[in-house]
Structures are given as structure tokens and as C-alpha cells.
Amino acid sequence: MRKTLIASGAVAALAITLAGCAAADEPADGEWPESITISLVPSVEGEDLAQALDPLTGYLSDNLDIEVNGVVANNYAATVEALGADQAQVIITDAGSLYNATQQYDAELILRDVRFGATSYAAVAYTNDPDTYCEDEPVMASYDASGIELSYCNGLEEAGASAMGQGPMGVEALANASGAEVALQAATSPAGYQYPVVAMRELGIDTDADIDQIPVEGNNNAVLAVANGDAEVGFAYWDARTTVAEEMPDIADKAVAFAYTEMIPNGGVAASSTLPDDLAAELTTLLDEYADSSDEAAAVMFDLVGLSDWSADTAEDEITRYGEILEQFAN
To answer: I want to staple 122 with a disulfide (CB 3.0 to 4.6 A). Which of 17, 233, 260, 269 is the partner?
Structure first.
């Protein structure tokens, strides 16, 4: 049974229109093209796009000694379409689109996104009923990204230490959710729906019949649904409780983390198979070093795509697993 819960805050969606696509000329084998195009979905608003893209493309143009253009896609799927049509030879996109690009167009995964030092994150199961879902007493650990202490059980974190957020762990406790009201986000959300649903199904729970799904919009509202008693269990990214800590200072008491799912990969960078190998290698090195090249570069990277760095440790198995999970929700 699916019940309706009105979200406490509206979520605004910003679509940025695809602007101008310039395909690179087909080079001879091994010969570098005169120009390449990067397609990405930026975090900034439309009026700032030219200014935001220029430092990155200028850095690459100067160091590669070819023209590098930036193209703005209105969504992640459009980056894959641009690569497939050779309107872009490099894409900066989400994990699902990386998987699709490698499978559909033989693109090469060259870099993974780094956020707060990590290339992946777990979906977290929260509860307001630790007696049911915790095999031990909840402990407090520090969430260093926000500098606050939050509650964890089932050995997820060590008392008094820095929380690490590494899954899977405590997942077997999800078996107790049968018959419970469970806050789930949109079916397109990896942390708020897909990975949690797969975890429950693998424990034998029929997520359509054995739980009461409480639809919520956004990670903050998934946490609030648990904290306010609208759902017994809720799922969000690690650690979404920080998004409501200001309005609910006692969130650690009202929503205890009791399980981490498999790790969900961040997005990254993929290059077209048509690029010469040495160009792809040089491009990878330059992008990998970009955030450390200057204070301006670090600021541009965070403002442009919300990242602190890129990493050449691509962990392709995580992307492959993500693709397998996506296929379960394809229809």
C-alpha cells in the first residue's frame, strides 16, 4: 500500500538548455583533432555558464595545444546522446550515464568524481525505533564534513570516532522492516529508492506488498519523515541528517542510522573511443590535476560541478554494479 505524505518543502528543478554543439573533425588514426568538445551538466545558473566554463576549457586548451569547447547539457542523459552523436568527445556526467556511455558507445571511463574525499557513498537506513532495528545501543560518532555528532548502531561506526560511511553493513536488519511504514524517495533516486529496494528484495521482502511505502521528495524529507514519526524507516544518502540538523537539533535522537547499503558511485568523466590514446591519457592527467592547479581552479570546479577533485581510480566495478541495479528499474 502506498500512502501519500506531503513534503515539508518544495523542490525546485532547474533545466539548463543545451547550448551549441560543435563536433570535432574526424582525425586520421593517431592524429590529434584540432578541437574537442566537453559536454556537462553544471551546477551554476545559466547566466553564469560562459564565465564558469572558460577557466576549465582555457586550462585544457593551453595545455593540450588544441581548442577545447564546453557544451552545456540540460540533463545527464543528453551528455550520452552528445557523445553518441560525436557532438562531444568528453562527458562529465553521473554514474548511470557513465555506464550507458561505456555500454552503448564503448566510451572509456577515465576519472571518477570526488566529493569530500570520497568517490562513492552509501544509502543509509534511518529509524525512530532502535529497539527493533538495532542489535546494540546506538553510539555517537563525528560526521566531519559538518562537524556534528550523529547516532549509529549495528556497528556502523565506532563511538567517539570519525564516521566513515562505508557499506554494506547492518543490511540484515532491514528484514525487520516487513510490515513497517517506509519513507522512499522517487524511483529514480539511487540512495532514496533503488539501492534500498534492492537490499530489501535480496532479504526476501516484497517491497510492493510487505511494506507501506511513504513517498517523500528529497533526502531531507526522508529524514524528517522518520524524525516526525510519519515513517518507521527512511532512506537517504550518507549523512542526510546534516540537512535538517539546524531545524531539528535533536535529530540524532529521533533518527538513528542502522544500515548502510552497497556503495553508490559518484559520477565522473568518460572519453570517446575515437580519441587517440595519447590524447585521452594527457586529458586524464590534466583533469586529474586541475583542482590542485590553483585556488581559482578548485573554486571553479566546486562551483561548476559541485566537486572537490577527480580521481583516476575509476573503480569500474562500482559503475558496472550501478548499471545492473539501474536495469532492474528500467521499466
So the answer is: 260
Alpha carbons 158 and 139: distance in angstroms, whole number: 7
Are 19 and 49 contacting, i.e. CB atoms less than 8 angstroms apart? Answer: yes
CA distance 91 to 79: 6
**Domain coverage including residue 284:** 35-116+266-328
Q: Is residue 30 part of a domain?
A: no
Q: CA 110, 16, 305, 299 torsion: positive or negative?
A: positive
**Given strand 256-265, what is the order of strands in its sheet?**
139-143, 148-152, 256-265, 120-127, 233-237, 181-184, 212-215
- What are 93-136's pLDDT values in tens digits? 999 999 999 999 999 999 999 987 899 999 999 999 999 999 99
Predicted pLDDT of residue 44? 64
Same domain, 240 and 141: yes
Residues 126 and 241 in one domain: yes
Q: What is the C-alpha R_g of the chain?
A: 21
Beta bridge partners of 142: 149, 162
Cα dihedral 65/70/71/73 (nearest 10): 130
- Regarding whether 283 and 320 lie in a shared domain, the answer is yes
